[in-house]
Amino acid sequence: MYYDRARQEERAMQKEKQRPAALLITLTALLAPFAATHTGWAGDPGEVPASPAAPMLSPPNGADPCLMGALSAPLTLADAVSRALCANPKTRSAWVSIKLYAAEVSTARQSYLPDLDAAASEDRSDIHTRLNDEPFLDTRSRATYPEGSVSLSWVLYDFGERGNQLEASRELLAAAQANLDLNLQQIFLQAAADFYGAQAAQASVDAARQIEDLTQSSLSAAHERMQRGVAPISDELQAQTAHAQAVLIRVKAQAQLRYQRGALALDMGLQPDSTLTLPPADQSIVVHSDFTESLRQLIEAAKRTHPRVAVAESELAAARADERAARAHGYPTISIVGELNRSNEPLTPSLGSPSVPGSVTDKQIGIELKVPISDPLWKRGLIAQAHAQVQIQQEALYAAEQQVAADVWNAYTVLQADTDNLANSEVLLSSAHDSLEAAQHRYEGGAGSILELLTAQTAFANAQQQRIQTLSDWRIGRLALASSLGRLGLWAVRDAR
């Protein structure tokens, strides 16, 4: 009989030891739906682009547009721009900022979920009671007491503080997305400008070599005439000076070409000494207007849609939401609260009686009205700070609109001048070429002077450089106007070389 009683006590002790584990399993089951709900609120799909360049490159089937192969040979403008959009640290930083603000939106959403906490403990006791005069009444007990509790607090109404905080987070996320678009526009334009700059530098080298060959031919003709005694030595010396100057210009042009290629390589995330094969600049340009609206219409449209303005508008909306949240802060909150406690500690039925095994379960649920007392005392300063931030963002929006208007005006005016100069530079180059041919024939026939020939050569060299620069400026100016309007995209360079 003693053996059976000992086994029963041992089984009871094992059950008590297993109760905390069972309690934890129960708590886990209770928390699982809420954990799944929190996970589902991590953020809406589509808030964060797949890659920094995804908003502009529009990859098919959701593929990563930044997974590229070898460089195209010759390098195309679309390839150079795409690589620059993916490689530039500004676009990657703006992309990571979107992730940051998307996480803040998720955090703001989670404030609508209940706070559920659980606790579990296990206490071991060893109680030894001794009576000095009655030793046979001494007792000793060892026991394990598992305890567990679950508490719930769920804010039902807070006068709009959480809603405005969520709205502010969403507006900041929208600002981060617009900021990525703005950075993509700027990097796009910079890469295209460097590409056209490299093409212009390459054309300048070719033109400089042509002028160097012409001056060498003039030097040979002057030397021959001087040898025959029909021209003074000064003609040869002037031709020699012109040739040396042409060599100097060609060397500087080659250095400028290396610089432009290095800048373009850095735009694409490559080393500046990377080998780039550029196609020759197309000399034939069909002038057409991609923007048929009037200048005033272009400016008004840019104020509505430009990413710079979108950033300022979203930041202003976020500041206004923060001000409303500040006003709601310090108001009462209404919450539902609940608690469940269970303890298996032995109970004492009455004073002086021995403890007996048992358990206590305590269940509570109710509505809590929480009225802050100290918060309203300093809420005025918080509201004043939020209102001042709204005023700052209002001025920032006005400044952004003015900057956009100025950029459109400047780009439109410059492009108009560059468009007019396309025909002017072509006429200038044709006239300079004809003048040079006439001067060469006159000098070789003995009717012209060396000064006339050198002047014609200089005029032709200048006309070549102006034509090259005009073509490059027009191409860049066209993209600059699109960028100032916030409309720059691969459509502008897909067929360009």
Supply database-style keywords.
alpha+beta; Outer membrane efflux proteins (OEP); 4-stranded antiparallel β-sheet; 10 helices; 11% strand
Number of discrete domains: 1
User: How many β-strands, per DSSP?
Assistant: 4
Proportion in helices: 55-70%
- Overall mean pLDDT stands at 82
Q: Which architecture would the CATH scheme give at its second level? A: Up-down Bundle
Strand content: 5-15%
Classified by CATH, the class is Mainly Alpha
* Unreliable stretches: 16-43
Quickly count the helices: 10
| Assigned CATH superfamily | Outer membrane efflux proteins (OEP)
Shape designation: elongated
Which structural class is indicated by helix and strand composition? alpha+beta
Task: Note down, in words, how this protein is organized.
With 497 residues, this protein is an alpha+beta fold. The protein has a single domain (2-55, 75-122, 142-492), classed as Outer membrane efflux proteins (OEP) (Up-down Bundle), CATH 1.20.1600.10. Helix content is 64%, strand content 11%. It has a 4-stranded antiparallel sheet, with helices on one face. α8 (307-328) packs antiparallel against α9 (375-444). It is elongated.
Compact overview of the structure:
The chain has 497 residues and is of the alpha+beta class. It has helices at residues 2-40, 54-57, 77-87, 89-110, 161-228, 233-267, 295-305, 307-328, 375-444, 450-484, and strands spanning 115-129, 139-157, 333-343, 360-370. The protein has a 4-stranded antiparallel sheet with strand order 1-2-3-4, covered by helices on one side.
